[in-house]
Every structure is written in structure tokens, then in C-alpha cells.
Amino acid sequence: xxxxxxxxxxxxxxxxxxxxxxxxxxxxxxxxxxxxxxxxxxxxxxxxxxxxxxxxxxxxxxxxxxxxxxxxxxxxxxxxxxxxxxxxxxxxxxxxxxxxxxxxxxxxxxxxxxxxxxxxxxxxxxxxxxxxxxxxxxxxxxxxxxxxxxxxxxxxxxxxxxxxxxxxxxxxxxxxxxxxxxxxxxxxxxxxxxxxxxxxxxxxxxxxxxxxxxxxxxxxxxxxxxxxxxxxxxxxxxxxxxx
Amino acid sequence: xxxxxxxxxxxxxxxxxxxxxxxxxxxxxxxxxxxxxxxxxxxxxxxxxxxxxxxxxxxxxxxxxxxxxxxxxxxxxxxxxxxxxxxxxxxxxxxxxxxxxxxxxxxxxxxxxxxxxxxxxxxxxxxxxxxxxxxxxxxxxxxxxxxxxxxxxxxxxxxxxxxxxxxxxxxxxxxxxxxxxxxxxxxxxxxxxxxxxxxxxxxxxxxxxxxxxxxxxxxxxxxxxxxxxxxxxxxxxxxxxxxxxxxxxxxxxxxxxxxxxxxxxxxxxxxxxxxxxxxxxxxxxxxxxxxxxxxxxxxxxxxxxxxxxxxxxxxxxxxxxxxxxxxxxxxxxxxxxxxxxxxxxxxxxxxxxxxxxxxxxxxxxxxxx
Lengths: 243, 369
Fold this sequence. Notes:
The complex is a heterodimer of chains A (about 240) and B (about 375).
Chain A: E1 2-13, E2 16-27, E3 31-36, H1 42-49, E4 57-62, E5 65-66, H2 71-76, E6 78-81, H3 93-103, H4 108-121, H5 137-148, E7 155-159, H6 167-182, E8 186-190, H7 194-198, E9 202-207, E10 210-215, H8 217-223, H9 229-237
Parallel strand pairs in A: 3-8, 3-9, 6-7, 7-8
Antiparallel strand pairs in A: 1-2, 1-4, 4-5, 9-10
Chain B: H1 2-17, H2 21-39, E1 47-53, H3 58-69, E2 73-77, H4 82-91, E3 96-100, H5 104-109, E4 117-120, H6 125-150, H7 174-204, H8 206-211, H9 217-247, H10 255-279, H11 283-299, H12 312-318, H13 322-336, H14 344-364
Parallel strand pairs in B: 1-2, 1-3
Antiparallel strand pairs in B: 3-4
Helix pairs in contact in B: 1-9, 2-7, 2-9, 7-9, 7-10, 7-11, 7-13, 9-10, 9-14, 10-11, 10-13, 10-14, 13-14
């Protein structure tokens, strides 16, 4: 079953076509890597799928709803973590969890119980009353991700979630992603790190606003006779006309 | 509505935890109410008067004494010539000159008319104008008294104008300015803070996270408005208290009337701040736009100069100025004891202001573009 279907999805800003007739599907429960060089149109495409940006033409169905006509239906079933991992820095950890859970209509008692479980799983019970501002970047990212899936969305969108942290922290972050995928939540993730691309079930690579290839990392490596995703990516990025 | 509770909780926590905001909310009204009523004062006293007496008669002497006794003037110079007198004006030592011509007393005694010359220094227009007005009033009194004394049998049928200043008998400035300062305060706090709020969330990126949730536009804006509403009410109450403590100024009318209108005004001005915030990309931009509008609001509000003395086109613009109505209301309640029934026009104007601003605020908040 597909949780995301796009058909000739296009977004133009003036004469610039950021996303150019993109068509693809994302299956339920998979970890879908959305790759591309800077300026290839990944973030724009992702923002359309989240209902933050309206497509110029084409169609996208996310969690069973059209993003252009019913963005608020879509928003009820998705989680989102932006590059800026937008937690409120001047709120405490538990307050951030409570706020977002509350916004998605969870009851206070339910929020309380689930927060306790979450913080135990993260081994972060000490951090409950800390201001987010005071946390190290790695923790902020883990927390932002946990908040984004707290209301059990069908899909979670991650926009370069692991920027700026060391490989060990990144690996820990991916452990969280696997756990979430095991729960049946579809993970849609953009990344710059090609080692992360290897962790995905399937990856698409965007070049100049178009989805150039879409397959599992193994198949892609076989097709381009490459030993790593890094090589696949470089091969494709050579064709880019945007810098 | 359940969502609103969580949003409000968040706003209040952020406000309380802010390093500067709670201090500002207390300090700002305190400073403004303690300082400005003394500064924003247009009462003119201690006018420095120079008299060029070319007559030196008993009558010219009497006139000079009458001026001194009025309480408005202080005689600072008796220059012998007009050019010398002007030097005093140029240097700023003299505010107004009275030139008494030769044979002034003689002419008056013979019952003939005579002319004196008044030259106010109008660098400060208000002061100069008032000095001239006060001087001519005293001159008139002087001439009427003189005429009555010289012909007791048939006094000239002089028309006397008696002025009774209602509601503020002594034309004191503080009861006039203090209520207006309260309005200023509410506008600055409840206009600027919301203006910086949403744009602040844009800068930190948190607004994206909110936009990707199913929070409704209306709920979001209500979550932003209500805290400032409460801040506005707290500040208003605090300034009532300060006005009473420091200046012994209490409204003739009801506090309830002011609160009712404040409800509408703060709702409107906070909505206005949110509109600016919605349309701005950065804090600087929001600040600049707010400054621009607030300057216009203040200067066209009747705060300093009466709207009735503005040209027609300016009055037409002032009719759209919410501050103008709220100043009128607060002054009305404080000085005249006006009730809601006396102020249907401001009530209507402020209600429409509040509705329009907030409809616009909700409309201009875009969850997607």
C-alpha cells in the first residue's frame, strides 16, 4: 500500500522550476531516502508533501488526502522535523512534548504517561525539566524526532535531521528511525550523508528538480556498477546544471 | 478549543521566562506615568516679559504693574529702544515684548485711542501664542477698567466675555495628559509585543513546526492575542493606580467604561501588531513598520494637538485612527464622567477596528504559500 503518491508534481517560483514533474510512490512502513544535491528541490518537494507549500501543478496524495485541496487532513496524519528542528528553546523538554501532543489532540493524562515512557526509552529522564536551549545538538535532534512521532503519525518527514553532529550521534539517531519504522510509521528522509542513504529501504535521487532514479540502494549500486551510494550519487550529480 | 489551552499555556510560559518582557511590562508603565505627565505639559507660566516704556507716565506704570501682578509674566527687561529689546529676544532672554508708545497715558486720559505693540518670540509657537493671548487679555481688562473709571455716569456698553472652563476648571494639564498617556502605554505594549511575536517565531523556525500541525488559523491567532489582552488589562489597572497615587487623578466616570473600551482597543491594536508580524519577514522590518504607524497614530490622535484644528483631509485620516477614539473615551471618562451612552461613535469605531484587524490577522496568517 502506498502512503505517498505524486503525479507530475511541479512547483515553480517565477520562471524557476524548483520541482519538475515529479512522479513517485512511497510504500507504507518503508524508510524512504530523498536525496539530491543542494538546490535540487528536495526541501521544496518535501514542503509540498507536508502541506507547507502549494504545488503549481500536478498532484500529491499523502496519507490518503490531496495536499493541495485538504492540507489540514494531511497534517493530522504526518509528523515533521525540519532542518531547524523547531522545538521551543525557551520551553522545557516535557513542555515541548506536552505542547505538540496537545496540539494533535492528545489528552493531558495520556501525554503524561507517554512522555514518561518516551523519556525512559531515550534514557533521558534527567533531562525532563531542562530547557531545550541548554541541550547539546544531538539531544535536540533526538528530541525533535521523538516529538514529531509522538502522536503516532502515519508518515514522518525528516529534513536533513542529522546535520552538524558526529557519526556516533548520527548512528544513534538512525537507531531511533529504525524503531519508528518497526512501529509501522513510514519515514521520509532527506539527507546529505551517503552512508545514511545506505540505511534506507529505497532512495530517490533528485537532479535539477526531477527524480532521476528511484530504487533500493543495492539495485542502484548494481545499475551504476558502483561500490557505494556515494559513487552513484556522484555519477548522477555530474549531470546537474544547477550548482 | 482544547488546542487553544495548550497554546496559551505555552505563550504564558514563554512570556514569564523571557529575560526582559516581564520587567518591561512593569517598568515601562512606571516610568511613563511618573515622568511624562511632568514633561508633556503645555501650561505656560513664567513668561519673560520685556517692556519698552517710551511714556513713563503713571498709566504706563499701572499697566506694567498689572502685567506683573497677573502671575503669568516676569518682568526681565526695560530696554529703551526696540532694536535693543529685540536683542533680548534673539538671545532667548525675553519671550515677549510690549512696546508702549510715547504719550500713551496722555491719549488715554483724553479718552482717545492708542496703540501698543506686542512682539512674542514664536520659536516655541505655543508659548509665543499664549504669551500674546495673555497679554492682550490683560490689556483689555486694563482698558475696560480705565474707561469705567473715567466716565462713571455712562460707561461704554462694553461686551464682557466671561469664560467658565467646564470639567477642568483650572485648565490643568495633568488630568488631561495622564489619561492620554494610559492610552499610549497600552498601544505601545499591546501593539509592539504582538508585532514581534509571530515574526520571532518565523526567525527561530518554530512557526514551521506549528504550520505543519492541524492547528487552525483562528486558534493560532487567538492563542497569540489573549495573552496580550491580559497584559493590556494588567497595565491599565496598574496605571489607574499610579495616576491615583501620584497625581490624585481618578475618573469622574466609571472604571468599567474604560475597561469596556480598552477591551476593544487592545483587541484591535494587538490584531494590528499581528498583521504587521504576519507580513514581515524579520524583526527589524516589523519594528520599522510599527514605528511608522505608531508615529502617525500618536500625532493624529489629538494627544498633543486637537483634531478639530487640523485641516479637513487630516481630520478625514484621523477618523480612521483608533487611538483618536480611545483617547477621547479615556479623557471623557476621566474628566467628564462620560458613560457608554455618550460615546456610541467611539464604541462603533473601536468595535469595527477590532473586528477588521483580527479578521485581517487571521486571513494574513498563512500556513502554506
